[in-house]
Amino acid sequence: MTPDVAKSDWALARELGIRITVHVGMRMTGVHVHHVEMLSGLGLLGPDTTYIHCTDSTDGELDLIAQTGGSVSVSPYVEMLMGHGYPTNRQAARAWRAPIA
């Protein structure tokens, strides 16, 4: 997705008042891409967005999501099965200062 397409998609979703769901931070190769930082640089983070997986997201990226009111969806079984990396349960709980069961 190009920056212009992302901006256009986010703007349309917000205009229509619908939630935005985006897959980020999944590494299936040795390449690390900081999706959340890129979206933040475009001014797209917000409370209307759910970020899926985040297995390769940095603590700083999880902090950005928390600070902008976004949410993270963690799917441990799928993430391990597909080789996305270790689930971010603990890191996400730290970013939101939530108790870890």
Q: How far apart lie the N and C ends?
A: 36 Å
Give helix and strand order, one letter per element, not per position: HEHEHEHH
Sheet with most strands: strand arrangement: 1-2-3
- Major β-sheet profile: 3 strands, parallel
Number of helices: 5
Number of strands: 3
Strand fraction = 5-15%
Structural class: alpha/beta
| Parts with pLDDT < 50 across at least 5 consecutive residues | none
Please state the average pLDDT score. 83
Based on CA atoms alone, the radius of gyration comes out at 13 Å
Instruction: State the shape.
Output: globular
Helix content: 40-55%
Would you spell out the secondary-structure blueprint of this structure?
Layout: H1 3-16, E1 20-24, H2 35-41, E2 49-53, H3 59-67, E3 71-73, H4 76-82, H5 89-95
Parallel strand pairs: 1-2, 2-3
Tell me what the structure shows:
The chain has 101 residues and is α/β, with parallel strands linked by helices. 44% of the residues lie in helices and 13% in strands. It has five helices and three strands, in the order H-E-H-E-H-E-H-H. The chain has helices spanning 3-16, 35-41, 59-67, 76-82, 89-95, and strands at 20-24, 49-53, 71-73. Strands 1-2-3 form a three-stranded parallel sheet. The longest helix has 14 residues, at 3-16.
